[in-house]
Design brief:
By secondary structure, the chain is α+β, with helices and mostly antiparallel strands. The protein has seven helices and seven strands, in the order αβαβαββααβββαα. It has a single domain, classed as Maf protein (Alpha-Beta Complex). A five-stranded antiparallel beta sheet has the order 4-3-5-6-7. A two-stranded parallel sheet has the order 1-2. The chain binds inosinic acid (IMP). Inosinic acid binds next to strand 3 and helix 4.
């Protein structure tokens, strides 16, 4: 069922991108049973899909280019994107913004994690951390839901504390996964875990679980 929904929405979203069809063709979907996740990141979608499936919800990938503003606050970035995505699609949608906050670097890269990943990458972060013993860091995820009927977006937060590894380990996941070890885990980096294992600890899974509980109750 979730796969079927995914295919349908991807086709529909192409229409949205071209601005051909803005009316809500999904108005008949059972309310509170499917979440339209605005992302182009398949890893994020798969993580969200597994968490939502635990809650009896389906995840649909909505491929639209939502604006990404520059801000020092993840919530502001995600809220601007979700408002834009609702405006462009006419659908109730979910947007997520996440960042890696490193204590020894005063929270860097934080809300700039995406830019820093593209420029310095994980190797650049490890270089900045060379010789630093205190390696505490956390991931913060802000999941925001908004719909054409809703007055303002609804935010859900998730954080996972951990340590930065000394070198990259593992080849699963994405982004900073090879250099982040969640403290509640067994010393593995996120990239050494399956999606199901990562979802036991991750910032995103925590935020999505909060969203799912709220979504089912609305
Ligand atoms: P965004 O939420 O896609 O803007 O993510 C910002 C940056 O953090 C990107 O470079 C992502 O690759 C990275 N990132 C976000 N979430 C995760 C995660 O769960 N694991 C590893 N890196 C992540």
């Amino acid at each position: 069922m979730p796969n079927l929904v995914l295919v349908t929405i991807t086709m529909f979203s192409r229409k949205v991108e071209k601005g051909l069809d803005k009316h809500n063709v999904f108005a008949d979907f059972p309310k509170g049973r499917v979440a339209f996740f605005v992302t182009t990141n398949v890893h994020k979608l798969n993580e969200a899909r597994q968490v939502l499936a635990e809650q009896g919800l389906a995840a649909a990938m909505l491929r639209i280019e939502a604006i990404e503003v520059q801000s020092d606050h993840l919530e502001e970035i995600a809220e601007a994107s979700v408002r834009d995505a609702v405006e462009k699609s006419g659908l109730p949608v979910l947007v997520e913004d996440a960042g890696l906050f490193i204590e020894a670097l005063k929270g860097f890269p934080g809300p700039y994690s995406s830019y820093v990943y593209r420029t310095l990458g994980t190797k650049g972060i490890l270089k900045l951390m060379e010789g630093i013993a205190k390696r505490n860091a956390y991931f913060h995820s802000v999941v925001v839901f908004h719909s054409p009927e809703q007055a303002s977006p609804q935010c859900f937060h998730g954080k996972v504390e951990g340590e930065l590894a000394v070198k990259e380990r593992g080849n699963q996941g994405f982004g900073y996964d090879p250099i982040f070890e969640p403290r509640a885990g067994t010393g593995k980096t996120f990239a050494e875990m399956t999606t199901a294992e990562k979802n036991r600890f991750s910032h995103r899974a925590l935020a999505i679980r909060k969203f799912a509980a709220w979504y089912k109750s609305t």
